[in-house]
Amino acid sequence: MATFFICQFVLMMQFLWRYVDDLIGKGLSLEVLGQFFWYMGLMLMPQAFPLAILLSSLITFGNLGESSELTAIKAAGISLLQSMRSLIVVVLLISCASYYFQDVIGPDAFTSFRQLLRSMQQKSPEVEIPEGIFYDGIQGTNLYVQQKNVETGVMYGIMIYRMNGSYDDAAIILADSGQLQSTEEKKHLLLTLYSGEWFENMRSSDIAGSAEVPYRRETFAQKQIVLDFDGGFNMADVGGITSDARSKSMQRITHDLDSLREYADSIGHAFYAEAQRIAYYQPQLERADSLQARKAIERADVDADSLMERLTLEQKQAVVRQALESAQRVQADLEMKGDYTHYLNRNIRMHQLEALNKITLALSCLIFFFIGAPLGAIIRKGGLGVPVIISVSVFIVFYIFDNTGMKMARDDQWTVWFGKLLGTFVLAPIAVFFTYKANNDSVVFNIDLYRELLMRILGIRQKRHVFRKEVIINDPDYAADAEGLQRITEAIGTYSEEHRLLRWPNPVKVFFREGDDHAIRDINDQLEPIIEDLGNTKDKLILNELNNYPILATHAHTRPFVRKWLNIITGLILPLGVFFYFRMLRFRLRLYRDLRAITQANTHIIERIGQREREKAPI
After folding, report:
1. Which among 48, 410, 432, 555 could disulfide-bond with 8, CB atoms 3.0 to 4.6 Å apart, if both were Cys?
2. What is the pLDDT of residues 456-494, one digit of tens each?
3. What does the pLDDT look like over 563-616, one tens digit per residue?
4. For 104-116, how does the pLDDT look when each residue is reduced to its tens digit (9 = 90+)?
5. C-alpha distance from residue 57 to each of 34, 65, 289, 384 (Å)
6. pTM of the prediction?
7. How far is 178 from 157, CA to CA, in rounded Å?
8. How deeply is 413 buried, as exposed, middle or buried, from its count of CB atoms within 10 A (0-12, 13-18, 19+)?
9. Are 102 and 358 in contact (CB under 8 A)?
10. 434: Cβ–Cβ under 8 A, 6 or more apart, which residues?
11. What distance in Å separates the CA atoms of residue 359 and residue 363, rounded to the nearest whole number?
12. Beta bridge partner(s), residue 179
C-alpha cells in the first residue's frame, strides 16, 4: 500500500504538469480542483499498480535476502517459487482489479475528467492584464497595456481592438490611462478610460446601396465601456468525448468496432467510385447531344498535340490554366478524402489499441512481480535505495517500448498487436530469465564476476602479494628452488631467441590457423610452485623479490580465444578482429616485459640463496 501511494503520487504529479496551464489563473474552487484530482487518480490507478508491485516486491525480497531470511527459507527445503505462491495469488487479484478499473471505472473517470478539463479550458481566466503584450482573455477584445501600477490598479498606454464583426469593422481605442473593474455578479467588466480617441468603421451592412463605408472618430476625456466577461464555471458538453476509445468498456469497444469498420468500408467504396468517375471523365462525351455523336467521338482517333498546335497562344494559355485548375481541384479533393479515411482508420486502430491496453496493463502487474521478486532475491538490498533505482529503470524501459509501439501502431507503421504487445514481448523473457536464475541461486548479479571478466577483456591484472607467514611448518628447499629458477632463466632465454615478441604476427596465422604457445604455459607451471615454496621463507629480501614476479597470461599473446571457431568469426568481423589483434599485440609487449622481470628476479633470488649458503658454511 505504501509503494502504491508513492507511485500514484509520482504519476499524478507528472500528469499534473501537462495541465498546469489550464489550472493557474482560472479562479477555480476547491470543489472543482478536488474533482480534477479525484478523476485523475482513478485514471492513473491501473498504471500505478505495476510500478507499485515492482517496487514493493523488490523491497520485500531484498529485505529478506539482506537479513538472510531467504537463506533460512531455502535451508528449510522451500524453494523461491514456493515462498512466492501466496504473493502470486495476491498479484493475480491485483491484476483482476486493474482490469476492472480499466473496463468499468476507467471509462467513466476518463469521460468525467475530459469533460471537467474542457470546462476548465473554456472558463474565462481571472483578469490579470500583463504588461507589454496583447491580452486576449476577454471575449471579442484584445487589450494592450504599456505600463501598470500594481498598487492603484491604474493602467497606462492602453490600446484596445474590439471585434464587432469582421476585421474591417474592428474598433480601435487609444487611451492615456484607465482602470478595469469586475461587476458584482461577475458577468461583465467595467473599463474606465481617460484622455483617449475612438476609431471605428461604420458597418457597411447598415447603409444599403452605399459604395463608401462611413468612418467615425471620437475624442473623449473620460469614457466607460462594458465588456462581456463570464467569471463563473459551467460544465461543458460531453459531445465528442464519448466517442473516444478510452471512454468505452471492452464490450462497447467490441461492439463499436464492427460499426466503425462497416462505415469506413462504405466510405472507402464511395470515394473509390467517385475517384474512378473523375479519373475517366471525358467532357466531350458529356457535351455530345446524341448517341451517334458520342459513338463518333469514341471512335475518333484524336491527337491532343495536333489539337493544341491549332490553337492560338491565348487559347493555349487558357487550356493550360483550366487543366491546372482542374488538376488542383481534384488533388485537393483527394487529399481531403485521404485525410478523412486516414482519420477513420486511425479511429479503428485506437479502439483496437485500447482493447489490447486493458489486457496488457493488467498482465504487466504479473510480469513486473516476476521481475521484482527474483531481482530482490538476487541483489539482496532492501530499503528505498537500490530498489527504487532498479524499479524506475525497468519501468522506463517498459514505458519506452510500450509508448513507441503504441505510436507506431497508431500511425499504421506497425500492426496493432505487435505495437501494443512490444513492451510485453520484451519484459516477459526477462521475467522468466530472472525467475529461473533466482530459483537456481545463480550468480548473475555477482559484481566480482563481472569485474574479473572486464579485467580479463581489458588486460588488467592484479599485482602479486606475498607476505611473511607467522607460522611456517616446512622451510623452503633453497637448493632445489635455485636450480629450478636457473632452468626457468635458461628456458626464457631459449624462448626469446625463437620467438620475437616485438614483431607483428601474421593476422592469417592468428585467426585462421591452429597453433598455441605451450612454452609460456610450461614456464608458468614451473614458476608458480617455486614461488609458493619460497613464500615459506623468513628472509625479507627473498619475500620482497617474490612480489616482483608478474602474474603471467599464458595464452592471450598468441590467439584471442582458445576455440578455433571463435577466432575465425572474430577474424571475419573486421572491427572486432582489429580490436582483438591490437589487444594481442599489447599482451605480447607485456609478456616481453614480464619475461625480463622474471629473469631479473631469478638472478637476484639465486644470488641471495647463494649468499645464505655461504653464510651457513663452516670456516
Report:
1. 48
2. 777 777 788 888 887 788 888 888 988 999 999 999 988
3. 777 878 888 887 888 888 888 888 888 888 999 999 999 999 999 888 888 877
4. 998 888 888 888 8
5. 32, 12, 84, 12
6. 0.58
7. 9
8. exposed
9. yes
10. 370, 371, 374, 375, 378, 444
11. 6
12. 192
Ramachandran quadrant class, 186 (left: phi over 0; alpha: psi -120 to 50; beta: rest): left
C-alpha cell at 105: 471505472
pLDDT at 284 over 70: no
Calculate the CA 117 to chain-centre distance. Answer: 27
In the structure grid, which three cell numbers stand for residue 438, read together? 533466482
Asked if residue 208 has pLDDT above 50, the reply is no
Please identify which residue in the block is written with the cell numbers 533466482.
438
Grid coordinates representing 187? 458577468
Residue 84's SS3 state is coil
Instruction: Tell me the C-alpha distance between 148 and 178, whole Å.
Output: 10
Quick: pLDDT tens for 45-72: 988 999 899 989 988 888 888 888 888 8
Q: How are strands ordered across the β-sheet holding 188-201?
A: 134-135, 141-148, 155-162, 171-182, 188-201, 215-228
Rounded CA-CA distance 92/226 in Å is 63
Alpha-carbon gap, residue 246 to 237, rounded angstroms: 17
* Burial (CB count within 10 angstroms: exposed 0-12, middle 13-18, buried 19+), residue 246: buried
C-alpha cell, 368: 513486473
Angle between helices 386-410 and 422-439 (to 10 degrees): 150
| Residue 406 contacts residue 361 (beta carbons within 8 Å) | no
Q: How far is CA 400 from CA 14, 117, 350, 393, 429, in A?
A: 16, 27, 19, 11, 17
